[in-house]
Amino acid sequence: MSEPTAALFQRLTQGVYVIGVAHIETRNAFTAAWVMQVSFDPLLLALSINPNHSCYRLLKEGQSFSVNVLKKRHLDLAEHYGRPAQTDKFVSTDWIADRSGLPHLREALAWFACEVMSEHPAGDHVLVLGKVMNGEMLDSEAGPMLYRETGSMDGASALYPASWS
């Protein structure tokens, strides 16, 4: 465990998102911080996901994902969707499904709907490139939540190496 290394990496500016996945009638979502725009033409977003995560199978089967941008005050949503999928996470939150079945949080600052274009191995994660098919700004006055504001909620500090190799 390396708290100083975790603190260093928390200085990278990144938001906090709820990633929605769906296949047929099955939906799930998880909290992520590793999302970024990578292209203008076509509009592409990159998502990093652990291939052992319970949502990865739905992402592969559905070949699409939604990115729900959380507001500064949404630490409770980040924690809720960051928990293991033991129950239906959507029961206690306000959401809608788009035409393809992807979940969008009504409380989000904004959302994007993406179609998977490709995957690339990235260490212990997989980098998924998604073509943006749709999106909507839901609250133009709100500021986005930053990963640093979540503290050690995700336990990631235990995953950083104690020293550089």
Quick tags:
mainly beta, two-stranded antiparallel ribbon, 38% strand, 165 residues, 7-stranded antiparallel β-sheet, globular, 3 helices
Task: Write up this protein.
Helix content is 13%, strand content 38%. The mean pLDDT is 87. It is built from three helices and nine strands. β8 and β9 form a beta hairpin. The strands form two sheets. The protein has a seven-stranded antiparallel β-sheet. With 165 residues, it is mainly β. The protein starts with a helix and ends in a 28-residue tail after the last strand.
Give the SSE order as H and E letters: HEEEEHEHEEEE
What is the overall silhouette?
Answer: globular
Number of strands: 9
Largest sheet: 7 strands, antiparallel
Spatial separation of the terminal alpha carbons: 15 Å
Provide the helix percentage: 10-25%
Approximately what portion of the residues adopt beta-strand conformation? 35-45%
What is the radius of gyration computed over CA atoms, rounded to a whole number of angstroms? 15 Å
Total number of helical segments? 3
Low-confidence stretches: none
Residue-averaged pLDDT: 87
Q: Identify the strand order in the major beta sheet.
A: 2-1-5-8-9-4-3
Q: Find the structural class using helix and strand composition.
A: mainly beta
Layout of helices and strands:
Elements: H1 3-9, E1 17-23, E2 26-32, E3 35-39, E4 44-49, H2 56-62, E5 64-69, H3 75-82, E6 95-97, E7 103-105, E8 110-122, E9 125-137
Antiparallel strand pairs: 1-2, 1-5, 3-4, 4-9, 5-8, 6-7, 8-9
